[in-house]
Structures are given as structure tokens and as C-alpha cells.
Amino acid sequence: MPDNGRQPAPEATSRARFNSLRHGLTARSIILPGESEEEWERLRDDYLLAWLPVGPAETNTTLRLAELAWRLARVAVAERAATLDREANPASYETPRLTPAPSHRTARRRNRR
């Protein structure tokens, strides 16, 4: 609640819930700003038609599969955006240093000392 004692406007609350959104994989909302509700409904209906769930457990599982497929599609979009950004701004990215894990022989030699 704001310091002035008034409730924030519903539009402000609606916008604010997406402030920390980066990739959308763990977002509470299935449909994010900029995504099509019609496309989501089409995907959901396709899953329901393909699996023809019987009963609430199967229906919930089928809906969950559709939701996960929708969210995972965001990964490809995020990867593509990151790749384009990295290509456009190569100096702003540091190449990660990969160090090999010690072999079991090296670990045994260290333990004998």
C-alpha cells in the first residue's frame, strides 16, 4: 500500500507484476505481455484434442503439458534474442572460462599427502 494510504490503481498493479520478468519460464501468468491469447488457446485446444483426457487428473495433466510447451517455446525466443544481442555487442560479453574437472586420479593423489 502506498504511503498516502490509497490503493494503487489496478492497471499499475497489473503492470508491476511483470517488472522483474526476464524469460517468463517461472511467471505466474501463462500469457505474458506481447503474447497472443488466441495462440495459447489454440495450443491448449490442440493438446486437449490430441490427448482426449478422461477425468480431472488427465485433464489437469494435459493442460500442464500444454502450459509447459508454451513456456518452453519462450526459451527459443530468449536464446535467439541473447544470440542477436551478443552478435551486436560482442565486447559486452565475456567468454566463460571452462576448467576441466579434476580426474579421480588427481583427487586420489591429493588425498594421499
Shape: extended
Order of helices and strands: HHHH
Helix- and strand-based class?
A: mainly alpha
Helix content estimate? 55-70%
Radius of gyration: 23 Å
Produce a short descriptive summary.
The protein is mainly alpha-helical. Helix content is 58%, strand content 0%.
What topology does this entry show?
Blueprint lengths: L9 H7 L20 H15 L3 H34 L15 H9 L1
Helix pairs in contact: 2-3
Molecular structure report:
This protein is an all-alpha fold. It is 58% helix and 0% strand. It contains 4 helices and no strands. The protein has helices spanning 10-16, 37-51, 55-88, 104-112. The relative contact order is 0.08. The mean pLDDT is 80.
List keywords for this structure.
extended, mainly alpha
